[in-house]
Write a structure and sequence with these properties.
The complex is a heterodimer of chains A (290) and B (77). Chain A has 290 residues and is α/β, with parallel strands linked by helices. Helices cover 60% and strands 13% of the residues of chain A. Chain A contains six helices and five strands. Classes of the chains: A alpha/beta (290), B mainly beta (77). Strand 5 of chain A pairs parallel with strand 5 of chain B.
Chain lengths: 290, 77
Amino acid sequence: MPSLKEVRSRIVSVNSTKQITAAMKMVSAAKLRRAQDAILRMRPYAEKLQAILGNVSATLDASEGRYAQQREVKRTLVVCITSNRGLAGAFNTQITRVARRLAQEAGHEVHVLCVGKKAMDTFRRTPMNRPELPQDLAGLFDGLSFDKVAPVAQMLMDRFADGTYDRVVLVYNRFKNAATQVVTTEQFLPVLPTAAPADAKATTGEYIMEPDRRTIVEEIIPKSLKIQLYKALLDSFAAEHGARMTAMHKATDNADALLKDLKLSYNKARQAAITGEILEIVGGAEALKG
Amino acid sequence: MRVEIITPDQELFKGEASYVGVPGVDGSMGFLENHAPLITVLKAGEVKLRTEQGEQSFAVKGGVVEVSRNTVLVLAE
């Protein structure tokens, strides 16, 4: 049986760990709410843009244009969206695992663009990380905004247009709810033809297009790509805090269970010590009597 | 007519206005009540609104405008 003092010091240390995990849970919960708000603010823009695109391209074949070119895939770029910090359960390892598997199954050259410190830590020393790709995208998450994300999306589009990559894929955690993250693999480029909404055809004819349909489509497609990347980042950001909240909740529960056990063995040890002392006193008294 | 100005990060304006001026790629444009349905692309400039409370303007870097059913939708950047 461990000594009283040992048990007491373990109780103290488990208790302070519990306080930390409980605090981290609260912080994540607050950040999660902010991240969810950002998703909600972005949603109307994304929906309306999609609607306009549907209106405009209903009669125009969306598969033309330089971001929709289907080429034989010789080189793929995987955009790996992870978090900057750990302690979020399997959040980051799942992403890097999927990216690795994509690379193995591809059968051609695969490069990785790391967003978030954790992906960078994993891929920095592998041949999949290329020095010519931006290495400092971890800062993207400090005050995540559309203005910060747009240039990255533009860079991806440029690399696709100039033929450096024939396919760009996003791998990220999609935010389903606070407790659930879904690892998602999504094609970014070339643009997949969007299914126009059924009612779009009826209205297209009525619109005046200024300057013309093609210019408008070419203007809107990059915008919707930027939104797609922004959405993936926002989702991943919210999912990260959700994952951390769950992980910290479990850690706090575990600490509680541990504390209960420790308290029990502390009380047992204390009781044993008291019984021992009484025995000694009684023994001593008996000896004096005799 | 109803006017909405939306950016990816927030909603800048939502409400009634009697006139909307936007910087179109081929020169600026103005929309009044009951304008015909139209879609156009914007360049950097200012979106101007005339409402009951007076004139308001928003700086944009570019964007798309859709006018339909007496509603002006500005997707700005």
